[in-house]
């Protein structure tokens, strides 16, 4: 049993502004990878403030579910950066990680990111999460869209050196984004807890994360400007990220990827709708424990927070997606037995319970 997470986590309100010297000491030429929302929530302004006097380039066109082509494009545009800062949700942070590898190893293509034996180092990475959900600020994972499908890679070298976690950046998040990202954190915690790679270390973090999300997600949705509620969700998200840094994710993620790439369902929502099915298949002491945390009704909790999918999909699509999931690496760490038929049943469960 072990626990390895080399990222230094600095947590609290105004934590970026309070660590000017630490950030400045990372280098001279900084590349910020972000999206448009960082201008609205104040995160970009804070980071630019502390980098005053340094050379700073900003790429703020990161799309949701970034394709590998974007990563290569960014790396070619900013070849002289010696530090990469990812600001935002999972997409900008995961993009920043991938770019940091390509900048340090310019001979590589984005496809090479998936062959971890081809590289050993990346440029130093700093992450500033602005959503309470992805946990990417404390993991060695980057999920990109590769050949039209979401596909993650992992490497020790893309653990961020420092994560600056400040809940204030989530105060402007919409209800839709707040729900989807919190469900992503919930999926990380639940999947990590039941994973075959779980340890007593990761379990402690997972259970605390689940309890916090259960208590505070409904409260945030009812009172989105409440800073205490927002802080509790942010804490839960980072804990859940620490969990999957140890355990990885399970079949719910593999199932959800198809809804995201094919139907544009936000990642957290697309993943979380499969958790009730996965818990039923798992059917062990751990899955029973999770259900008990929700008064034996995770579905009841989903109804409380308004989980639904404004999509439809066909039997033919289910057949196609199930074949992809059957070959996913996630199954190796997922408890329970999954066949092509049971995977199809998972999609049918979601279609009948969540699709409008």
What would you note in describing this structure?
The protein is built from 15 helices and 8 strands. The chain has 356 residues and is of the alpha/beta class. It folds into 2 domains: 8-169, Rossmann fold, CATH 3.40.50.1970; 174-354, Dehydroquinate synthase-like, alpha domain. The chain has a 6-stranded parallel β-sheet with strand order 1-8-5-4-2-3, with helices on both faces. Strands 6-7 form a two-stranded antiparallel ribbon. The chain is globular, with a radius of gyration of 19 Å. Keywords: Oxidoreductase.
* SS class: alpha/beta
Nearest-angstrom radius of gyration?
A: 19 Å
How is the CATH topology of the largest domain named?
Dehydroquinate synthase-like, alpha domain
Summarize the amount of helix as a percent range: 40-55%
What ranges have pLDDT less than 50 throughout 5 or more consecutive residues? none
- Taken from the alpha-carbon principal axes, the silhouette is globular
Please indicate the percent range of residues in DSSP E strands (runs of 2 or more): 5-15%
Named at the architecture level, the CATH assignment of the largest domain is Up-down Bundle
Beginning-to-end CA distance, first to last residue: 44 Å
Task: Give me the strand/helix succession.
Answer: EHEHHEHEHEEEEHHHHHHHHHH
Number of self-contained structural domains? 2
Q: Tell how many strands the DSSP assignment holds.
A: 8
Strand order of the largest sheet: 1-8-5-4-2-3
GO molecular function: alcohol dehydrogenase (NAD+) activity; metal ion binding
Domain Alcohol dehydrogenase iron-type/glycerol dehydrogenase GldA: 6-166
Protein name: Iron-containing alcohol dehydrogenase
Keywords: Oxidoreductase
């Amino acid at each position: 049993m072990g626990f390895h997470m080399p990222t230094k986590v600095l947590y609290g309100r105004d934590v970026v502004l309070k660590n000017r010297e630490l950030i400045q000491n990372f280098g001279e030429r900084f590349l910020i990878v972000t999206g448009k929302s960082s201008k609205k929530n104040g995160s970009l302004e804070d980071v630019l403030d502390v980098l005053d006097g340094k050379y700073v380039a900003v790429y703020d066109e990161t799309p949701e579910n970034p394709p590998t082509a974007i990563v290569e494009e960014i790396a070619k545009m900013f070849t002289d950066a010696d530090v990469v800062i990812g600001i935002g949700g999972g997409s900008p942070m995961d993009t920043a990680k991938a770019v940091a590898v390509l900048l340090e190893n310019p001979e590589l293509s984005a496809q090479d990111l998936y062959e971890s034996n081809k590289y050993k180092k990346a440029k130093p990475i700093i992450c500033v999460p602005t959503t309470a959900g992805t946990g990417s600020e404390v993991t060695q994972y980057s999920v990109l869209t590769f050949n039209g499908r979401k596909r993650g890679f992992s490497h020790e070298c893309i653990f961020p050196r420092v994560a600056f976690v400040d809940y204030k950046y989530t105060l402007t998040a919409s209800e839709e984004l707040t729900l989807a990202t919190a469900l992503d954190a919930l999926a990380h915690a639940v999947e990590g807890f039941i994973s075959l790679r779980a340890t007593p270390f990761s379990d402690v973090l997972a259970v605390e994360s689940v309890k916090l999300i259960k208590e505070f997600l409904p409260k945030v949705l009812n009172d989105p400007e409440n800073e205490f509620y927002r802080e509790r969700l942010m804490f839960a998200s980072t804990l859940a990220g620490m969990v999957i840094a140890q355990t990885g994710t399970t079949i719910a993620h593999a199932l959800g990827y198809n809804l995201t790439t094919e139907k544009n369902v936000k990642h957290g929502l697309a993943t979380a709708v499969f958790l009730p099915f996965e818990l039923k298949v798992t059917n062990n002491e751990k899955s029973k424990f999770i259900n008990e945390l929700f008064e034996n009704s995770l579905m009841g909790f989903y109804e409380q927070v308004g989980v639904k999918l404004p999509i439809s999909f066909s039997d033919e699509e289910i057949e196609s997606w199930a074949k992809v999931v059957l070959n996913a690496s996630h199954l190796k760490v997922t408890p329970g037995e999954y066949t092509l038929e049971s995977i199809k049943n998972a999609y049918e469960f979601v279609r009948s319970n969540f699709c409008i």
